[in-house]
Design goal:
The chain is built from 4 helices and 5 strands. By secondary structure, the protein is of the alpha+beta class.
Length: about 120
C-alpha cells in the first residue's frame, strides 16, 4: 500500500436512497445512506496541464455511483460499500479508493452506523 498515489480526490457526503438491510421493513422501503469516497490518483499531470482528459472525471464517478446505489438491493452495508469501490476503481488513474457508507438512524440512540473499506486496483490492470 505504500506505493499508492499520495494525491486524493474527495467526494463528500453524497446522499442516496436504496434498499439496504435485513429486516422486512428495510427490504420494502428505501433507506438513506451517506457516502464518502476518497480516490487516490497521481494528480501531477492535470495539475500542470489543466486538462480534464488528464485527470479522474469525478463527476462521472459520482453519476455511476448514484445510478448503481439507487437501483441496488443489498442486505449489508459492507456489500454496498464494496460495489461502490468497484465502480470507483474503473477509471484509469485511480489506484486506490476508500469508501465509507453511513446509514443514519440504523441503531436506536446512535446517529448513524457506518462501514469503511479500502480497495486497490488489481496488480494486473
Amino acid at each position: 500500500m505504500a506505493d499508492a498515489a499520495p494525491d486524493r480526490i474527495y467526494i463528500r457526503d453524497l446522499a442516496c436512497r436504496c434498499i439496504v438491510g435485513i429486516n422486512p421493513d428495510e427490504r420494502r422501503n428505501k433507506q438513506d445512506v451517506i457516502i464518502n469516497i476518497v480516490l487516490h490518483a497521481d494528480l501531477r499531470t492535470p495539475g500542470k496541464t489543466d486538462r480534464i482528459e488528464d485527470t479522474v472525471d469525478y463527476k462521472s464517478v459520482k453519476k455511476d455511483v448514484i445510478r448503481m446505489v439507487e437501483t441496488s438491493s443489498f442486505y449489508l452495508l459492507e456489500r454496498l460499500a464494496n460495489a461502490i469501490a468497484e465502480i470507483c476503481l474503473v477509471p484509469p488513474g485511480v489506484e486506490r479508493v476508500r469508501v465509507s457508507v453511513d446509514k443514519p438512524g440504523a441503531l436506536r440512540f446512535a446517529r448513524s452506523v457506518a462501514v469503511e473499506i479500502t480497495r486497490e486496483r488489481p496488480a494486473d490492470d
